[in-house]
Amino acid sequence: MTKRSRPAPRAKPSRPRSTPPVAPAGGTTPPSIGEIPIPGASKGHPAIGVGLWALGRWGPEDEARTKATIARAYEHGFRWYDTAEVYGGGRSERLLGEVLERAAGGAPDAYVVTKVSWEHLRPAQVRASLVNSLERLGRASVDLYLVHGPDPHADLAATLGALEALWKEGKVGAIGVSNFSVEELEAAAKGLTEARIAVNQVRYNLLDRDDADPVREYCRTHQILLEAYTPLARGLLHGRYLDRRTPPSEVRQFAHRFFEPERLPELLERARRLRALAREADVPLASIALHWLAKQGAAPVVGMSQPEQVDSNLAAWAVRPPDDVLDRADAIARGDRA
Which CATH superfamily does the domain covering 35-334 fall into? Predict the structure, then answer.
């Protein structure tokens, strides 16, 4: 790829749309994923994406299933794919790259996001990590490159300076971070002279706002898009585990925040009240969860590891509940009893 000394002139920043265009409840219009413009990037950010953290974690016998999931997602209109170098030691990136390579034209319209590990935040490590990720993905560049998490011992300004150099070379379409506090966002931004932090990916859903609430106002003011991972609360907001079904051990291991014995009963009670609201409104429970996030200005990235999950999540996104239903859901999830 030919290097450029400076990026092309950037369009004036535009405020992200809080709610993408989708069919209203009861409508028959085919679902539209929608896009959110982010400052400093020429490519729109899809309003909902596919999280691939689980793809690459399991045994080799699952490769066919995980590839089928990615392929189905692409065929059904999903374009944003979120992966990372630490997911399966790079296996998730490799699987994604293999599937996209077989798509029409190599899937040039895919919006590929990957992350540099918190263990590789020295400038030379950042570059090496991206080179390795691009090789596994089979792509010349990624649309968005995130710092997976802060390291208290790393110089965040130097890390972001290294990311900006890759942005200027055209290897990175936009720069972002994950799990950053306001203080860490401010420290990281000091390393940028022309680029800007476009995204902060945090854990965020109706039942768990602890990571997002402290940074929401800062990100809104600075036009940093919040990407929301675990938008369905590890399945609780898809209706799983609400009728005495026990979560599998791997879910409990990686979602202990939701399944702590002292916390789970209250979360289940609120999730059941949300399910009752969804039934009253005649919409999927997941529709409420996903569009509540969109109403907050966040873009949900939904974990999918089976092809049928693609269908159910797309169906949920296709139905936008009325604002009054989303407001009632907000109150229920906060624990209001009125």
Answer: NADP-dependent oxidoreductase domain (3.20.20.100)
Specify the pTM. 0.87
Q: What's the CA gap between 212 and 232, in Å, rounded?
A: 15
H or E element that contains 215: helix 213-221
What is the DSSP code string of 229-286?
A: ESTTGGGGGGTTTSSSPPPPHHHHHHTHHHH-TTTHHHHHHHHHHHHHHHHHHTS-HH
Strongest mean pLDDT among 52-56, 88-92, 102-106, 108-112 = 108-112
CB of 324 within 8 A of CB of 277?
Answer: no
Q: Cα–Cα distance between 6 and 165 in angstroms, integer? A: 10
Every domain of the chain and the residues it spans:
35-334
Judged against a pLDDT cut of 90, whether residue 258 lies above it is answered with no
- SS3 label, residue 172: strand
Instruction: Name the token pair of 338.
Output: 């009125």
How far apart are the C-alpha atoms of 85 and 116, rounded to whole Å?
A: 6
pLDDT tens digits for range 278-326 = 999 999 999 999 999 999 999 999 999 889 999 999 999 999 999 999 9
The b-or-e profile of 189-207 (16+ CB within 10 A means b, else e) is bebbeebbbbbbbbbbbbb
Q: For residue 85, what pLDDT is reported?
A: 96
Which pair of structure tokens corresponds to residue 251? 């879910």
DSSP per position, 93-117: HHHHHHHHHHSGGG-TT-EEEEEE-
